[in-house]
Structure formats: C-alpha cells, structure tokens
Amino acid sequence: MIGARAWGQETEDPQQKAKPVVITVSAQAIPESSVSASVTVISREMIEASKAENVIDLLQGVPFLHISQTGGAGGLSAVMLRGGDPNFTFVMIDGIPVNDPTNLLGGSYDFSYLSTDQIERIEIVRGPLSSVFGSEAISGVMNIVSRKGAGPLKLFLEARAGNFGSQEVRTGIQGQHLKWSYAFSGSYFDIDEQTAQDTLNRKTAALFSSLDLGTGRVLNFTTRYTGSDASGFPENGGGPLFSILRAPEKSESEELVLGVRYQQPAFEIDFDFFEHWNDSATPAILDGIPPGVFSLPSFENKSDFERTRIQATGFWTRSPWSATISASWKRESGNSEGIIAEVFPTEFQLQRDTLAGAGEILYDSGNLHATFGIRVDDSENFSEEVSPRFGATYFFPNAGTRIRGTWGEGYKLPSFFAISDPNIGNPDLLPERSRGWDIGVEKEFLDARLFVSGAWFHNSFRDLIDFSSDEFRLVNRREVISKGAEVEARFRATHAIQFLAHLNYVDADIRDSTEPLRDRPKWRGGLGLDWQLTDAARLHLRYTAVGKRFDFQIPVPERSVAGEYQTLDLAASYQILDSLAAFLRVDNLLDHEFQEFIGFPNSGIYARAGISLSFEP
C-alpha cells in the first residue's frame, strides 16, 4: 500500500513490513497509508541507524521542519513547522503534553533536554490539530512514543565517547513476564566546552510497562525523568563571536512525565501529569560600551510548572464508519520568581482550568478514508473555543496514486508569562489562532521501488502576540501568512540500498508589513543514503542544506542575515557478535563553517564512537 513506509525505515521489501500506525492525527490509531494529514514517522530503524544521542541530532536529517538551536548541545533547541513559531509546535511524550507556558518563549519545548533512549518512534503532523488536542496545536504536533517490552528478559548496555570530552552511558532492561511487559532505560551524558563556555550534563530515566488484564482490558504506565545542567551564550546576545560581556547563561532543569492509561473495548481513560522546574541566570546583554537603549539587564529566574489531565474516550465502530467522543479536564499551574539587574523583583503565579469535549467521525471504505472532528474548549478567563477539522484521502490502486487534503483551525492560549509578567505582561491578550489547509499527492513507480510525494499548503496565523514599544507590553497585532510546498522521494535501488531526498519551500510574511520574520529559511532540503553493506555492516548518511535566515543580535544590529549552510552527518555500525556491536557517528563531517544564528558558530566536526551490548541472561 502506498505511503506505508516510515522515513528512514530499513531497506527491506515494504511488503514484508507491517504498516506503521499513526496515533497522533486522530483519537483512533489508523495506518499511515489512510492518513489525510501531512505526516512524517521516524521509525525505530532510523533511530537505531542514526546513532543520534539526542532528538535534535535525529531531527537534523528529517524533512519538512526547521531546527532552531543556539550554540552547542546545551543551547536552546526548538522545532518549527511550516513557518510557525516554535511555541506553535505541540509536543507530547506518549500523548502527554510537555510544553511549558511559563517560559519566556511562550511555551515552546526545549529539545536539548531529550535523549533518544527509550524512544520507539516519533510522529510529526504538520497543520492545525486543535480539533484533537486543543490549545497549542496550532502549527503542528510531535508525539514521541516510548519503546514497549516484549519477549524474554533482555539487558542492554551502551557506551560512547568523542571529542569535546563527550561521554555517554546507557543501560536498560526489557521483557515480559506472564501478562506484564516492561521496558526501562537510564542514561548519563556529559559534554565539555564546544565553542566557548557551552556545556551540558544530562540524566534520563524512563519506564514503560503494560499489564494485560484479560478480555481486552489493558493498563499502561509511562514515566520519564530528565535532569540537566547547561551553560552557553544567551540568545540575542551575539554568541561567542560578538558578545560584549563574554558571560554565559546557566540553567538547571528537571522534567517529569507521568501517565496511566486504562483501556477496554470501546472505552479508555487517561490520567497524566507533567512538571518542569527551571533555575536560570542570564547575564546582561549589552549593545555597546557604554550600554545603549537596546541593552538588556541581567535576569535570574526560578520557575515551576505543573499540568494535570484526565480524559475519558469512547469508541464506536460499524464498518465502514467509526466514531469517538471524549471529555477531559486539565489544570495548569505555574509560578515564577525572578530578579532583574540584581535589583528589581518580578514574580507571578497563575492557575488555569480547562474543560473540553471532542468528537470525531471516520469513514473508511478501503480506497476512500475521510474524517471530521470538532472540539470545544472552555478555559478559565477565556471564551469558548471551537476547533473543527476535515480531511480525506483517496487511493487509486491501478495507478499506485494517493491524493489527500485537510483543512483545520487551531488556537493557542496566551502563555502564563505573556499574561502575568509584571513588566510586559498583558492580562487582556487574546488567543493566537490559525487556519490552514494542504493538498498532497503520492505515487509509486518501478514496482513500488520509487516513492514520490508532494504537498502544497497555506496557513494564516492571526492575533499573534508581539511586544509594543509604544505601550511597553505584549499585544495582539500581527497576522502572518505562511504558504509553500514540500517534495519527497525515496528510491530503493536494491534490497540493501535506499536513497532519500526532500525539499521544502516556505514563504512566511507579516501581512501589511515589510518587517521580516526571524529564523524562517525559505527553503530547506536534504539527501540521504541507507546502505546495508553486509549482513553485519551498515552505513547511514544525511546531507542537509538550509537557506538564509533573518536574525537580530543586540550587539551587532548592522548584521541581519544568517547565511545558508550545509552539513553532512555520517553513522556507521558493525555487528561484531550477535550480542556486541560497534558504531561511529560524525556530525558536520566536512567541517563546514556556518552560524545557525549570527555570532553562534558551529563547533565543527563532532565525532564519537561506542559499543553496544545486548544479551538474554
């Protein structure tokens, strides 16, 4: 079936693999080949082949997104979809939201915290999905799915080391005992200075377990803890090249994800909890000596955010129709205490409850799949939000062609910081909104060895929150139009060799304004090669090219463009014994010099090698 292979899946005959199932697009799990939305699924095979130590490394070679990263491994790292802001990407771990609305960026998720251990796959959906997830699913959704345990007890250990003093150890256990399955992993990662005063220390522990209660009843439990200490030059400060004070920003963070799901035929109930704690110290950012009007004072801040959710979902099926209906309650609580310029205190506390109801109808006749969903959210101190979405896909079996299209609306409540900050906050802010559609076509050639897809999209982001220098506070005033195209091709030359290519073009502009949007490359593309050289040896190559981006750094206002860049990443592995493997990963193999933001140079070649051991006791 067309579209049944995930990005980066092993180079085996597609007919020998099960269809990837996507759970992010809908309240029900449906095969990727039936999905009407624009979806990229990063398979477990790609995660293994890439030897990436964190999710940002993994995403560098993935099509149709833009990575926003300041500095080295500990720098702020976010994902942008189709020209939307980083905080328009709704991020989940096993369906549990992990965006933090207390941070200064309005709720974007910092991927520098996230290791790749214990991850089974990542599902990325582009386009509004508030009809399923409510607030924040305005530009797209990313769901990170944990590995599940099965079979006999299995232990694994992995160790790697590289330049910049990097070192990482991972360990884990998984298996199944009677009707209980489990998968646990833990990791420790440390890296020294990569360019200047940028370091990262990260600890992770994750567990997924499942208990089969019989007669179709299942109880699932998931938890993930991450703790990190990071330093690096602050964003907007000119980085190692142009910073005037030469002082790094330092932060300590802890993150806890906890979820329980009970499932039985036609019904499930979910409870989940998320907490993020952060303690940071940002130095002053000067625009010159003596400091001018654009300088920013130092800022020390401690914040704590908690989110608790309960959701009940009912399912009904009578072929070719199926439907879901759900009700949920969510409480978000956040507090922040800070001091500006070591003199002026700033703090806020806020709690927000949201009640929501959602419904979805799906029709699947084999070749035609259609879905209509709608959700109503009632959030404290805001008007009710209604979020509809419609999508359809049709497969022409004789032509090996699938066409699809979606239309939807999304919204995002103002962040706690935007509403409550005593200096620039505005309690009268309205939710930010989006309306988007896309049309796509996919086709197979050469007996399904060549797969080509393309999509055309258009998004309107309205009532965007911006800073007003006249009122000296945040206001709703901008509208951004984002439109473009995405093209992808995959060619399986032989049983052992697969080539990949992708290119996307995004034109994102503020309506009725000549002001450019920051960090929005008009184009991004890449090439890939997966080659199973022998039964024991594998090679994984990813080439990525990114176009120019507008940027603004306070110490260098005369510079406004971060140049285009290319990077080539390599991963190779060799299975020495059934239980023992060696691997190598090299980022920026050609040692290209480039700056993702003005003044933040890439650290150059980053190589690390390691071994992995897995065995059944």
DSSP strand tally: 35
Distance from N terminus to C terminus (CA atoms, Å) equals: 39 Å
Low-confidence stretches: 1-5, 9-17
- The whole-angstrom Rg is 24 Å
Shape: globular
The overall average pLDDT, rounded, is: 91
Number of helices: 5
Based on helices, strands and strand pairing, what is the structural class? Answer: mainly beta
Strand percentage lies at: over 45%
Helix content: under 10%
Largest sheet: 22 strands, antiparallel, barrel
Question: How would you characterize this protein structure?
Answer:
- This protein has 617 residues and is mainly β.
- 4% of the residues lie in helices and 58% in strands.
- The protein has five helices and 35 strands.
- It has helices at residues 44-50, 55-59, 130-133, 239-242, 416-420; strands spanning 21-22, 30-31, 38-42, 66-69, 77-80, 89-93, 96-97, 119-126, 140-146, 154-162, 167-177, 180-191, 199-214, 217-232, 249-264, 267-282, 299-318, 321-340, 344-364, 368-379, 385-396, 401-412, 432-445, 450-468, 473-492, 497-510, 523-531, 537-546, 549-550, 561-562, 565-575, 580-587, 595-597, 600-601, 606-615.
- It has a 22-stranded antiparallel β-barrel.
- It starts with 20 loop residues before the first strand and ends with a strand.
Quick structural summary:
The protein has 617 residues and is mainly beta.
Relevant terms:
617 residues; 22-stranded antiparallel β-barrel
Break the fold down into its secondary structure elements and pairings.
Layout: E1 21-22, E2 30-31, E3 38-42, H1 44-50, H2 55-59, E4 66-69, E5 77-80, E6 89-93, E7 96-97, E8 119-126, H3 130-133, E9 140-146, E10 154-162, E11 167-177, E12 180-191, E13 199-214, E14 217-232, H4 239-242, E15 249-264, E16 267-282, E17 299-318, E18 321-340, E19 344-364, E20 368-379, E21 385-396, E22 401-412, H5 416-420, E23 432-445, E24 450-468, E25 473-492, E26 497-510, E27 523-531, E28 537-546, E29 549-550, E30 561-562, E31 565-575, E32 580-587, E33 595-597, E34 600-601, E35 606-615
Parallel strand pairs: 6-9
Antiparallel strand pairs: 1-2, 3-8, 4-5, 6-7, 8-9, 10-11, 10-35, 11-12, 12-13, 13-14, 14-15, 15-16, 16-17, 17-18, 18-19, 19-20, 20-21, 21-22, 22-23, 23-24, 24-25, 25-26, 26-27, 27-28, 28-31, 29-30, 31-32, 32-35, 33-34
